[in-house]
């Protein structure tokens, strides 16, 4: 299909918002702003079959209100029909894509999604998350202290030595994974998400299989020998006789490794770069530690650039005629800078309130189940950095991840002395 082009198109007709080469250089904020001024979804044409989908492209949804509308209407806009990931490459077979769409929580619709999310929610209650606070605060302090010692008078990599560590240790703490195994989760998640980056010359499907195999072993251990931990609560039956199967637990661990590791470490890294670019905000944080900081960091970073849905019947959105079977990409990285919602969205402001960002998803059934854990981790890490590395500064350029949907940073050299 094709869209009706306006007389003066907001961006070039051949512009591809899902291009991994584009995201390896920058987030297309200027192009998003141009689209938002039209207040209309924009047709992103692509060669049929070139990105893992047998269609001619997808709709770019740039407005905050439209992203929320799609997110809240799971009957009209399906996550299951084509999955949530906007683009794949030829390393994925049709069979592998089908397995992903049928098993991963982000790719499911009700009622299957409702059932699995209710079970998984047992591990993310306020009581569970709040119970991690003291342990994670201690770990954050230890991570920063070790990074500071490693840096000495030189530089360290903020991504691997600081930002990645607390999310990994939090996953291990939450799920009962031995801390010595967290490096394996880090490696597997990098391989899974780095399929478009030549630096990660690995098999993403093999990495997913490794996580599933590891997780199934962990689930089997807890079934045989229950413990007072989250894994036991997830894999054993509740009063209704429902618990995650070993397969389901394995797929849940994939989501946790990606959502709980990659996204939070990228939020921390982009947040640190924002502080470097605006030293007054860093001074404010060190002095006052506003509770609003974590949400502004997530808004600013928007680690997941976009998820997609598929229209199950003809509809209209912002003046665009969306046909049944069309894919629509909810660009959170545009919605989070929507001038109709945020005052001076181009400004990094850790006191921003209210802050109705969509960095955890556009509300609705797929809202990030670990949002409160992510907020906690961000706050604890920046507290530890402010206390032990108050003079931290940039020591070189960041290296970005080549990805179609992750706003990732692979390396950020910093001086900590």
Summary, kept brief:
With 417 residues, the chain is an alpha+beta fold.
Explain how this protein is built.
The chain is α+β, with helices and mostly antiparallel strands. Helix content is 47%, strand content 10%. It is built from 17 helices and 12 strands. The strands form 4 sheets. A 5-stranded mixed sheet has the order 1-2-8-5-3. Helix 9 packs antiparallel against helix 13, helix 10 runs antiparallel to helix 11 and helix 15 crosses helix 17. The N terminus is likely disordered.
Please specify the SSE layout and strand pairing.
Blueprint: H1 20-25, H2 29-38, E1 42-45, E2 57-61, H3 64-72, E3 77-78, H4 94-103, H5 112-120, H6 126-131, H7 133-151, E4 155-157, H8 158-163, H9 165-175, H10 182-193, H11 204-224, H12 230-235, H13 246-277, H14 279-288, H15 293-301, E5 306-311, E6 315-317, E7 320-322, E8 327-331, H16 332-335, H17 371-388, E9 393-394, E10 399-400, E11 409-411, E12 413-415
Parallel strand pairs: 2-8
Antiparallel strand pairs: 1-2, 3-5, 4-12, 5-8, 6-7, 9-12, 10-11
Helix pairs in contact: 7-9, 7-17, 9-10, 9-13, 10-11, 10-13, 11-13, 13-15, 13-17, 15-17
- Mean residue pLDDT: 90
The secondary structure category is alpha+beta
The tally of beta strands, per DSSP, is: 12
Rounded to the nearest angstrom, the distance between the terminal CA atoms is 57 Å
- Please describe the biggest sheet, giving its number of strands, its sense, and whether it closes into a barrel: 5 strands, mixed
**CA-based gyration radius:** 21 Å
What would you call the shape? globular
Share of helix, binned:
40-55%
Query: What is the percentage of strand-forming residues?
Result: 5-15%
Order of helices and strands: HHEEHEHHHHEHHHHHHHHEEEEHHEEEE
Task: Identify low-pLDDT runs.
Answer: 1-6
Neighbour order of strands in the largest sheet: 1-2-8-5-3
Subunit arrangement of the protein: single chain
Work out the helix count: 17
């Amino acid at each position: 299909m094709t869209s009706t082009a306006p007389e003066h198109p907001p961006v070039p007709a051949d512009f591809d918002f899902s291009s991994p080469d584009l995201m390896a250089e920058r987030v297309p904020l200027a192009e998003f702003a141009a689209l938002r001024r039209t207040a209309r979804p924009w047709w992103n044409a692509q060669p049929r079959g070139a990105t893992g989908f047998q269609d001619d492209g997808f709709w770019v949804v740039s407005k905050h209100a439209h992203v929320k509308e799609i997110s809240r209407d799971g009957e009209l806009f399906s996550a299951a029909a084509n999955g949530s990931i906007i683009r794949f490459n030829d390393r994925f077979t049709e069979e592998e894509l089908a397995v992903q769409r049928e098993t991963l929580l982000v790719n499911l619709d009700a009622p299957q999604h409702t059932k699995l999310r209710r079970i998984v929610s047992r591990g993310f209650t306020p009581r569970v998350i709040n119970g991690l606070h003291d342990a994670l605060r201690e770990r954050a302090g230890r991570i920063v202290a070790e990074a500071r010692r490693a840096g000495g008078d030189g530089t360290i990599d903020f991504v691997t030595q600081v930002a990645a560590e607390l999310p990994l240790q939090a996953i291990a703490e939450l799920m009962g994974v031995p801390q010595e195994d967290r490096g394996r989760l880090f490696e597997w998640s990098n391989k899974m998400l780095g399929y478009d980056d030549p630096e990660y010359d690995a098999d993403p499907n093999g990495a997913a299989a490794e996580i599933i195999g590891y997780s199934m072993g962990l689930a089997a251990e807890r079934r045989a020998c229950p413990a007072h931990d989250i894994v036991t609560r997830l894999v054993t039956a509740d009063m209704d006789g429902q618990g995650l199967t070993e397969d389901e637990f394995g797929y849940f661990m994939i989501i946790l490794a990606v959502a709980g590791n990659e996204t939070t470490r990228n939020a921390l890294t982009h947040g640190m770069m924002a502080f470097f670019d605006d030293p007054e905000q860093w001074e404010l944080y060190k002095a006052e530690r506003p509770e609003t900081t974590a949400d502004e960091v997530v808004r600013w970073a928007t680690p997941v650039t976009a998820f997609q849905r598929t229209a199950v019947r003809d509809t209209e959105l912002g003046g665009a005629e969306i046909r049944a079977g069309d894919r629509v990409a909810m660009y959170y990285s545009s919605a989070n800078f929507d001038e109709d919602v945020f005052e001076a969205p181009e400004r990094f402001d850790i006191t921003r309130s209210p802050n109705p960002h969509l960095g955890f998803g556009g509300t609705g059934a797929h809202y990030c189940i670990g949002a409160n854990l992510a907020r906690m981790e961000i706050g604890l890490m920046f507290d530890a950095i402010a206390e032990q590395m108050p003079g931290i500064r940039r020591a070189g350029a960041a290296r970005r991840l080549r990805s179609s949907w992750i706003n990732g940073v692979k390396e950020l050299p910093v001086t900590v002395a």
